[in-house]
Design goal:
Blueprint (H helix, E strand, L loop, with lengths): L1 H15 L7 E4 L2 E3 L6 H15 L7 H13 L28 E6 L9 H11 L5 H4 L5 H6 L13 E10 L9 E5 L4 E2 L1
Antiparallel strand pairs: 1-2, 3-4, 4-5, 4-6
Helix pairs in contact: 2-4
Length: about 190
C-alpha cells in the first residue's frame, strides 16, 4: 500500500513539474509525453475536442442550455478552455464502474476540420506515436497493409485505429472542491 501511494505521489509530482522531454511512465501500460505539443497546439486540440464533445449530436438540449447559461452569466470566460463542471451534463458512470463524471465520444473521419494547419500539425505529432497498421493487424498481408494508412484527411485518425475523446473530472476524495480536469485526446485501440 505504501509503495502504491509513493508511486502515485511521484507520478503526480512529475506531471506537475516535468523535468525532461522524454516520456515517462507511472504505469507499464501508459506513457506520458508531457512536452510533445506546444502550448498553442494543446490549446487548439483542446478547443476542437471540446467543440466535438459539446456538439448537438453528443449533448442534450438541457446540456447545451447549461453551457449557454454559464457563458451568458460569464461573458469573459475564454471560449477555448474547460467550463466549470456545473456547466456540463456528465455521464454518471461507466459500464464497468471504474470512472464516473465523464463525457466521451468516438472520433470518426471527417469530424475534425482539415483546414486548420496547427491542428493538422499537432495531430500528426500525436499520430506519429502510434503503432503502424502492420503492428496491430493480425494476419495481414503486404497488400492489405498498403491500403491501411491515415484517414482521408490528415486530421483523421489512422484507418487501423479507433480514437476516443474523454473528458473526466476527478473529484476530491472528500467530495469537496472541483478536483482535477483532464482531457484524454487519444484513447486508441485497434479495430
Amino acid at each position: 500500500m505504501r509503495r502504491t501511494l509513493k508511486l502515485l505521489q511521484d507520478s503526480s509530482r512529475q506531471l506537475q513539474h516535468p523535468t525532461s522531454s522524454s516520456p515517462w511512465s507511472p504505469h507499464p501500460g501508459l506513457r506520458v509525453h508531457s512536452s510533445l505539443l506546444s502550448t498553442s497546439q494543446q490549446r487548439v486540440v483542446l478547443q476542437h475536442s471540446l467543440a466535438l464533445l459539446s456538439s448537438p449530436s453528443r449533448t442534450t438540449s438541457h446540456a447545451r442550455r447549461l453551457a449557454r447559461s454559464y457563458l451568458k452569466a460569464h461573458p469573459d470566460h475564454p471560449r477555448d478552455t474547460f467550463l466549470p463542471p456545473e456547466a456540463y451534463e456528465f455521464e454518471k458512470g461507466h459500464f464497468d464502474g471504474v470512472i464516473t463524471g465523464y463525457r466521451e465520444m468516438l472520433v470518426r473521419p471527417g469530424m475534425l476540420p482539415k483546414d486548420d494547419d496547427e491542428l493538422v500539425h499537432a495531430l500528426a505529432k500525436v499520430y506519429s506515436l502510434l503503432p503502424p497498421a502492420k503492428a496491430v493487424a493480425s494476419g495481414s498481408t503486404p497488400d492489405s497493409q498498403a491500403d491501411s494508412s491515415m484517414g482521408e484527411h490528415l486530421v483523421d485518425p489512422p484507418d487501423h485505429l479507433i480514437m476516443h475523446l474523454l473528458e473526466h473530472v476527478e473529484r476530491m476524495s472528500s467530495g469537496k472542491g472541483r478536483g482535477m480536469r483532464s482531457l484524454m485526446v487519444c484513447s486508441l485501440t485497434s479495430r
